[in-house]
Amino acid sequence: MVERMLVQGNEAVGWGALNAGCDGFFGYPITPQNEIPEWFSREFPKRGKVFVQSQSELGSINMLYGGAAAGFRVMTSTSSPGWGLMQEGMSHIVAAELPCVVVLVQRGGPGAGSVRHAQMDYLSATRGGGQGGYKNIVLAPASVQEVHDLVQLAFYLADKYCNPVVVLSDGIMGLIGESLEIKIIDFGPLPEKTWAMRGRERQKDGIARMIHSAPGVAPSRGYMNYLTWLEHMDKKYRQMADSEVRYEMYQADDAKLLVVAYGYPSRVSKEAVKMARARGLKVGLVRPITLWPFPIQVIRDKAELGCRFLVVEDSLGQMVDDVRMAVQGRVDVGFLGVQGRHLPTDGGMILPGRVLEEIRRFL
Amino acid sequence: MNGEAIKKERVAAVFVRTVPPQICPGCQYWTLGRIFAEVLQELDIYGKTIGIVGVGCHGNAVSVLNIDSMLSAHGRAPDTATAIKRLRPDAIVFTIQGDGDCIAIGAGAFIGALTRAERLTIIMCNNANYGTTGGQLAPTTLMGQITSTTPGGRGTTGNDGYPTHTAELAAIFKGVAYSARGAINTPANYQRTKGYIKTAFRKQMEGVGFSFVEVLSNCPPNWHLSPLESLKWIEEKMISEFPLGEFKNVDRIE
Hints:
heterodimer; B: alpha/beta
């Protein structure tokens, strides 16, 4: 029997984590993602799982560092100012090669910005925002169902690569209510976490484990010096970039213009594409599901056929740089950003009519 | 083998050097490592103990132990330890942190763990300066003490504040079962401090609450003293500012 319920995007995070076998959630209140820690505080302790309200986002991310090092599936959620605080911890977790999941429900920035929807953390999420430079997979859901499904995928990919995975949501994806089919998704087997700390007597080989984020100071995971470790990480990042690109194409086959959008603007843009098609305009949509690795190749292939692009994102322009890099100057890349909102206040949204207007101007 | 020989052999099983030595001549952190080895052996918990190391020289006291361990981010060891203890409650989880790690950069994490009454044991080494980075002002630096960032002595030229008393601070939190301060500058103090650390681990084993031990320790190169002079400096200067003893010891928190 398929279980369906009407839930918010933020609550779908919880159901997805539960179906992924998440062991512990560590979070700190911040708008607009408070429904996530509230869900875990309600649903996790009664199932014998761990919920901790941390003293700050610094606390949350370092709790993930510990929980992941002990071999558990752990996650946190936050919004943009909290994401800023987590950068140091993200870098340590990457350096220690540990799996965990961070759900980032973006709000407006910079600074305290606004408490409502925006897409202004694309660059810090996709470019390794903390010290030292690193890569992590970023998944962008565009429906409540996809929030639930991608949280499960995030846990799988984190374990597969021993690297944190970010699920990049936004204030609108977090708060809309949609029908959700609760299901466990099987992604296949994963290697045993033989590196995890359990207490020496629980280690099958009886050898004590040491986990650290200073590969330049002491050998890490068997890599005896800093350069061999860096080469190993480079190989791992390349493997992710080669194997994990995900995207959705809509009405793209004969399109002369492709709108590129993720998260809530991709829903808006799909609507605009339908309106444009009804008017006989050859327009389609590319929706990146992984923001890193970015679907460079599919965009480059379309550019080589002469297809032009319009990027719609709720910021002053961040993902648009990736699209420009993908097309390498072959064709025009238009941009509709936060200036296209229907209101000048923090409640303003980019609406389908405005995207259509931009499509018509561009074609 | 007589009893003493057996004891020595068993301690040796815990006390194994797993990383290259990174301490200065006369440093007491291996002495502290020896205390950990004895205590974990005597309580028979070394097989299920997980040690979290902060950032600083004190890590040497754990890296010589043959136990599962990890290095946390600077100041965040209480957070890292919190998750491990919550997810694996039957493990014995402790952190070792310096004064700067624990009560300067890590004050928020430390107070957070105290507030939540985590069943953790935190050992804080107080050597009155930042030893790893070359002897700068720490929260625990004594008044008038010369460091590389208080060249005229703490409090003589600017507003450098006053020494922080972490063991007394921890004792005022309701969720704390045990808080003490010891030194390891004499054989008698070594034995007493070993007793404090043992009691602290016992409080965690019995699930009473948070346990904390501050250990006064030397830093000969940054104090610009010989190892022997540094032990005398602890006796004469540090102990009068940081009194030794137990500040809280309860068997139940209601």
